[in-house]
């Protein structure tokens, strides 16, 4: 978990506001113990998550693709080739939707605007460091035109059994500790 207390509080405000603006239909599905809060999300969304990224063409047609996403500082971060259709769409029209869904287990749905993070951006080094540690090499080394993107969400909701998901996280953390002790 890399989020500060302020980032977790901001995420909770976003989740609450999005939930309040949601349709009655959505609020009948995401209720009580099936509604994820900010503290839960930042503990659950670690490592790489395969995201569904929806962009829009110049003709207003939706396009969806998958990206490796990482939830860092309460924002989705991903990289792709600068020549990919999704990168062209986002440069021209930064509005996007992202979902992370694992069957009935968890669903996180986000809308917002994507920003491109260049090496001059103050957050670039930390993000690249995280991605490099995760993958074992820098995404920047994977091609001539790799871009780093981050969704600045304006709407986000999370669905899942938070207690069960957090129990999974705790079991995984305990297994890692046990494995390290054996070495």
Task: Report the portion of residues in β strands.
Answer: 25-35%
First-residue to last-residue Cα separation: 24 Å
Shape: globular
Write down the Rg.
17 Å
- Given as residue ranges, the uncertain stretches (5+ residues, pLDDT < 50) are none
Strand order of the largest sheet: 1-2-3-6-5-4
* Annotation, overall tally of beta strands: 6
- Summarize the amount of helix as a percent range: 25-40%
**Major sheet: size, sense and barrel closure?**
6 strands, antiparallel, barrel
Order of helices and strands: HHHEEEHEEHEH
Work out the oligomeric state of the chains in this entry: single chain
Structural class: alpha+beta
| SS element count, helices | 6
Averaged pLDDT? 95
List keywords for this structure.
183 residues; alpha+beta; 6-stranded antiparallel barrel; 39% helix; single chain
Describe this structure in words.
By secondary structure, the chain is an alpha+beta fold. The chain is built from 6 helices and 6 strands, in the order αααβββαββαβα. It has helices at residues 5-21, 24-29, 38-44, 85-92, 124-135, 162-182; strands at 49-56, 62-72, 75-81, 95-102, 106-117, 146-160. The protein has a 6-stranded antiparallel barrel, surrounded by 4 helices. The protein is globular and about 40 Å long. The two termini are 24 Å apart. The mean pLDDT is 95.
In short:
This protein is α+β, with helices and mostly antiparallel strands and 183 residues long. The chain has helices at 5-21, 24-29, 38-44, 85-92, 124-135, 162-182, and strands at 49-56, 62-72, 75-81, 95-102, 106-117, 146-160.
